[in-house]
Inverse folding.
């Protein structure tokens, strides 16, 4: 699949692009099963709820689960990313977040690239984020909220670099926009949040200002975010690098599969 | 103004009814000015932010501000309430809530009537709530979320009556629905949240299950809620009654004004 000229222009203009129902119900089922399998696999890639049994997030499932190792090369996902970037790409970060019912702390308004610049010394904002809805996303279950067009202004503030140490998770306060700055940006750009059925996909810029509301619904909401980075734009660390399940080290260029991610997996029992 | 048969049926069916842009921009301006005037009036009716200068809510402004004393008798508001109830009505509670930017704690899912039964020993759910938008309400600034039709099941649980003492504000935990119960209700009824420009009005049942999301926007959002109660359905207290600015004691039947709430106020300087 290739993006149309109109879709490319929408992405450049707004900083994000919704591809409604890109994956079908069967494909979503398979991805959910693989997510659960990865949740059941012990290891540091799992982020567990405080004091709890529930897994809140997993990293780098594409390194363990065939469905995801293939999904990141599915041409419906990879080809649009290649269109939006210049150089070859690899997976810089892979995360599935299960936002719990009745909460899931809201994530302060921020720009991803600032976090990666601070944490990983990433040279340029040469990334595309691909968000894959593993559940329906509605206004009630903590959708991501964008300020459309805000990516065109570059980084809106500097963050708190000096106080930040290398760690797995940045403190949102280190990178969150000051309220007055955000108010200016909302005045100029407004707010919007793409929604859609499970299987929908949102491509978004590493420089777009975004936040996300808490999940007010009684059901968890699973969201995959794959970040592709250009192979010529590698991170480097002054101190201790972040773990390799958080920042992937395999920067070999990805090539699209011939078919879809399930094509060679159909015989595998679900 | 009278509700049409279709509107009456919508209210009975869904437990709420949106009246889009019922008040015009000039009227909203006057109400905002009167709200600010009441915020500047010292007294226990003002709920102030923790450690702060900002007023988060005011009670019973209709006892001090002419705009509000007349608004509660404006026929566009009072006549629909009279249609929905049987007996004469009075104002049981009047509150304007300014939900602060970037937060405003989310209010747990609950039914108003349970709170009033516990706090004020109110005999029957013979009330109508009238919410007046003093700012535009969007999906981003903490709209009220309803489970449409949930009022038809009556009270969904009993709350924690025994532990509750008489106080101005109920602890949301005393009346909030258990997660499993809410999940069942959401499965059956879904979720919806009426939105609209400032001046819009939502009528809603004291038995409808509702919650409200935090305000993710950088601007405060002001919402007036007037609760009308039937004059034959008065509260009584076993212990200390709640203060009279929270639970109004004047239960004389209200009669609609001849004109709109501003008709006799237009000469007053804003």
């Amino acid at each position: 699949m290739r993006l149309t000229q109109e879709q490319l222009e929408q992405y450049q203009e707004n900083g994000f692009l919704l591809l409604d129902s890109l994956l079908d119900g069967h494909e979503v089922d398979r991805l959910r099963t693989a997510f659960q399998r990865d949740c059941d696999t012990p290891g540091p890639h799992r982020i567990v709820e405080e004091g709890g049994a529930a897994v809140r997030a997993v990293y780098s499932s594409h390194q363990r689960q065939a469905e995801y190792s293939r999904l990141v090369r599915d041409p419906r996902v990879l080809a649009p990313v290649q269109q939006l970037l210049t150089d070859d790409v690899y997976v810089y970060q892979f995360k599935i977040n299960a936002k719990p019912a009745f909460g899931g702390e809201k994530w302060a308004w921020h720009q991803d690239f600032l976090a990666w610049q601070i944490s990983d010394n990433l040279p340029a904002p040469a990334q595309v984020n691909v968000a894959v809805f593993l559940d329906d996303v509605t206004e009630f279950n903590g959708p991501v909220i964008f300020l459309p067009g805000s990516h065109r202004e570059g980084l809106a503030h500097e963050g708190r670099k000096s106080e930040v140490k290398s760690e797995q998770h940045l403190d949102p306060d280190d990178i969150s926009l000051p309220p007055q700055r955000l108010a200016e940006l909302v005045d100029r750009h407004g707010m919007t949040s793409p929604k859609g059925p499970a299987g929908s996909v949102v491509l978004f810029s590493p420089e777009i200002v975004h936040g996300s509301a808490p999940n007010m619904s009684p059901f968890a909401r699973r969201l995959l975010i794959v970040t592709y980075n250009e192979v010529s734009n590698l991170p480097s660390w002054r101190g201790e690098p972040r773990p390799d399940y958080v920042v992937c080290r395999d920067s070999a260029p990805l090539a699209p599969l011939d078919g879809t991610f399930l094509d060679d997996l159909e015989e595998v029992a679900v």
